[in-house]
Amino acid sequence: MADEKLELSVERHIDAPVEQVWRTMTERFAEWFCPRPWRAEARELDWRPGGRSLVVMHGPNGEELPNEGVVLAFEPNRPFILTDAFTAGWHPAGPFMVGVFAVEPDGTGTRYRASARHWTREAMERHREMGFEAGWAAAADQLKALAERPAA
């Protein structure tokens, strides 16, 4: 069982079915994953266990923050899990966190929960100081807004 003391998380109720939220999470990933005014560019997102994840976050002043890792779990309508502990080909990297993005039925909608699990208390505190709460909450709100929009 994960040490809850080393996990940061955000939750949202989204007024849309699980399948719709899941599709939004995966098919429109770049539109919600990074809090504005930053934007995410999914240079590579191989949605399968062991697949490469390379997401570059672009800041409003030209900043570029590459985040490379591996997809650990991926199954429709179930949590998808990413980590930066490895790069493609299972090459160890300096681990910072495991990201778990889960959806489950919640009344007539969906409960979305995103969590960052850390190896050390120092890493968790550094993530908190980087603005975890505000950043991941903004991304959750962006996902909620996209998923709740009626299909065009």
How would you describe the overall organization of this protein?
The protein has 152 residues and is α+β, with helices and mostly antiparallel strands. Helix content is 26%, strand content 39%. The chain has four helices and nine strands, in the order βααββββββββαα. It has helices at 18-27, 29-32, 121-129, 132-148; strands spanning 7-14, 39-45, 52-58, 64-73, 80-83, 86-87, 91-92, 97-106, 109-118. A hairpin with a 2-residue loop joins β8 and β9 (109-118). The mean pLDDT is 93.
Give descriptors for this structure:
single chain; 152 residues; alpha+beta; seven-stranded antiparallel sheet; two-stranded antiparallel ribbon; 4 helices; 9 strands; 26% helix; globular
Topology summary:
Layout: E1 7-14, H1 18-27, H2 29-32, E2 39-45, E3 52-58, E4 64-73, E5 80-83, E6 86-87, E7 91-92, E8 97-106, E9 109-118, H3 121-129, H4 132-148
Helix pairs in contact: 1-4
Q: Would you kindly provide a brief summary of this structure?
A:
This protein is an alpha+beta fold. It contains four helices and nine strands; from the N terminus they run E-H-H-E-E-E-E-E-E-E-E-H-H.
In order across it, which strands form the biggest sheet? 1-9-8-5-4-3-2
Alpha-carbon Rg, integer: 15 Å
SSE string, helices as H and strands as E? EHHEEEEEEEEHH
Low-confidence stretches: none
Largest beta-sheet characterization: 7 strands, antiparallel
Mean pLDDT: 93
Give the structural class: alpha+beta
The best one-word shape is globular
Total DSSP E strands? 9
Distance between the termini: 42 Å
The share of residues in extended strands comes to 35-45%
Helix content: 25-40%
- Count of alpha and pi helical runs: 4
